[in-house]
Design a protein that fits this description.
The protein is of the alpha+beta class and 108 residues long. Helix content is 34%, strand content 39%. Strands 1-3-4-2 form a four-stranded mixed β-sheet. Pfam families: YbjQ_1.
């Protein structure tokens, strides 16, 4: 199994699988957009609507956080991660931090 194939689920149970809990795993990232995109986002803020550059930044941050979560789980010898959740917050007007966290498990 490659790291990208590691099952990450938001559920507590994996149907048909017995496993033992290894421990908590995390994937963290902080993302920022460049100054040109920040100016464009500021202009969009005046007229309203979705700020697509920031949406894309959050998608990228989520993907990085999940990849790092899988890396953390693989380093612990896990086969999967259950109860995965996200948390995010602003560090400044143009920086977002995203954390993916869950429970690493090993199949019996």
């Amino acid at each position: 199994m490659t790291m990208s194939d590691m099952l990450v689920t938001t559920t507590e149970r994996i149907p048909g699988q017995e496993y033992e809990i290894i421990g908590e795993v995390f994937g963290l990232t902080t993302q920022s957009k460049n100054i040109v995109r920040n100016i464009g986002a500021g202009l969009k803020n005046i007229v309203g609507g979705e700020i697509k550059d920031y949406t894309q930044m959050m998608v990228e941050a989520r993907d990085v956080a999940i990849d790092r979560l899988r890396t953390n789980a693989a380093a612990m010898g896990a086969d999967a991660v259950v109860m995965m959740r996200f948390d995010s917050g602003s560090i400044s007007a143009d920086m977002q931090s995203v954390a993916a966290y869950g429970t690493a498990v090993k199949f019996k």
